[in-house]
Structures are given as structure tokens and as C-alpha cells.
Design brief:
Layout lengths: L4 E5 L10 H7 L6 E7 L6 H11 L3 E5 L10
Parallel strand pairs: 1-2, 2-3
Length: 74
């Protein structure tokens, strides 16, 4: 898919409010976009929810990190 717009989400243990984000994005009038979701090793049902969205809409791509990203300290 060559979308004109790429939208990124980076949830972590976001099951409580997660559905509001993709639902809002999918409800927009502009449909020429891709939604890239990169989960940072959630331990709740975030991944299951994301996989449901990915299965039902080809514009959604879910990436799962193999290990938690630690903040870069300068």
C-alpha cells in the first residue's frame, strides 16, 4: 500500500483507552493513510486488541518490539 499519509501509534499497556485511537483515525473522511502501530512489549491485552484491528483493516500494520525500549539519557 502506498498511502499518502502515515500515522504512528506507540502504545504501552494501553488496553483501557486503546480502541478510541484507531476508531477515531478510521472514522476520518480522508482514507488514503496507513496506521503503523509499534507496541513496546505491553503486558496487558493491548497486542490482542491491535491484532483484531490489523486483521479487519489492511491500512493497519502492527509491529511488536522484541524488547522494551529504554529512554536515551544524555
Amino acid at each position: 500500500m502506498n498511502a499518502s499519509i502515515s500515522i504512528a501509534l506507540a502504545p504501552y499497556n494501553g488496553e483501557k483507552y486503546l480502541r478510541e485511537q484507531p476508531d477515531s483515525i478510521l472514522a476520518q473522511t480522508i482514507q488514503d493513510f496507513e496506521l503503523i502501530v509499534c507496541d513496546d512489549c505491553s503486558t496487558d491485552s493491548t497486542v490482542r486488541i491491535l491484532r483484531e484491528y490489523e486483521k479487519n483493516d489492511s491500512k493497519i500494520k502492527v509491529w511488536l518490539l522484541a524488547s522494551k525500549i529504554k529512554p536515551n539519557r544524555m
